[in-house]
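# step 3/5: fold
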Amino acid sequence: MSTVRFKLNTQAVSVSCAPDRRLLDILREDFGLIAAKPGCGVGRCGACMVWIDDLPANACLVMAFRLEGRSVRTYEDVAADAASAPVRDAIARCGALQCGYCTPGLAMTLTHLHQQTPRPDREQAASLLSGNLCRCTGYGGIQRSIEQLFPATPPLSADNSGDSQ
C-alpha cells in the first residue's frame, strides 16, 4: 500500500492503494466517477478515456504509482465545461450515440482534438479517433460528428497538383 496524491477534476485528492491498481478502478470504486467505462482492459477501445495533464489516456492502462502529482480530468468534469459544448451538441445532433457506452470516451477524445490549435482536419481527426471503438457500430453518426466539428482537407492548389504542364 502507498498513498498517491493527485488532482481529480481540479480537486486535490489522495488514495491509499496498491501501486499497480488501475486508475479506472480508483475512479469508479473510490470516487464514484463512472463515466469512464471498463471495456477491453488493454487500451484499445477508449471506453475509459480520461485526460491526464490535459492529454487523453486510457484509464485502464494507468497504474496508481503513475498518478503522483498529476492532474486527472474525467468526463464528469469535461462535460460541465462550456468548451465541450460544440462536441456534445454535434454528438447529439448527429446521432453519434446508440447505447451510450462509448460516448463519454468518444467525447473526451473529440473535445481534446477540437481544442487543439491548429485544429486537425477531418481526415486527421478520424484517424486520431481510431482508439475509440463503438460496439454498436454507430460509426455513421460518429462520422457525421467529425464532419461537423472538423474542416475538410483543403483542396490541392494548382501549384500542388503534381501536374507539370
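# step 4/5: annotate
The domain at 2-75 is CATH 3.10.20.30 (Ubiquitin-like (UB roll)).
# step 5/5: archive (pending)
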